[in-house]
């Protein structure tokens, strides 16, 4: 079985070379946004990617390290990896900014007449109060 499009979250790869060296694919192209490393210790956080058939006509839109879009015909595939919401002030700002970017992206694609699919890791627990 083969997939024409695969969406990845949490690649932890700091650059395209690391993605290319870790993901071996035949007849595929990889569109990605690197993870970021906030401190000298620990692993990088984030990183998202699309793995797409080479012959598939598409447009990649790199919005930021946590929201990217792949346009295939009149289909907008939005790949997200949202910040884990821990209720800290810094985190609230990041999370709210990402939700706003996601909302603007959905509205923009809708206004262009595209069908929209949103997938990824939302890092959300709907049962939590915060």
Automatic annotation (TrEMBL):
Pfam families registered for this protein in UniProt: Exo_endo_phos
Protein's name in the database: Endonuclease/exonuclease/phosphatase domain-containing protein
SUPFAM superfamilies from the UniProt entry: DNase I-like
MF GO annotations: catalytic activity
Taxonomic lineage from the root: Eukaryota, Metazoa, Spiralia, Gnathifera, Rotifera
Organism: Brachionus calyciflorus
UniProt domain Endonuclease/exonuclease/phosphatase: residue ranges: 5-126
């Amino acid at each position: 079985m083969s997939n024409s499009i695969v969406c990845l979250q949490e690649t932890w790869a700091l650059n395209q070379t690391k993605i290319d060296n870790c993901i071996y694919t035949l007849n595929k192209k990889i569109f990605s946004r690197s993870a970021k490393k906030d401190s000298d210790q620990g692993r990088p956080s984030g990183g998202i990617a699309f793995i797409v058939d080479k012959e598939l006509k598409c447009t990649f839109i790199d919005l930021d390290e946590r929201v990217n879009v792949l346009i295939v015909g009149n289909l907008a595939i939005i790949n997200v990896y949202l910040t884990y919401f821990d209720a800290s002030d810094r985190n609230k700002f990041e999370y709210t900014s990402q939700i706003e970017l996601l909302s603007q992206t959905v509205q923009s694609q809708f206004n262009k007449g595209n069908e929209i699919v949103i997938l990824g890791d939302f890092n959300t627990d709907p049962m939590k109060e915060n």
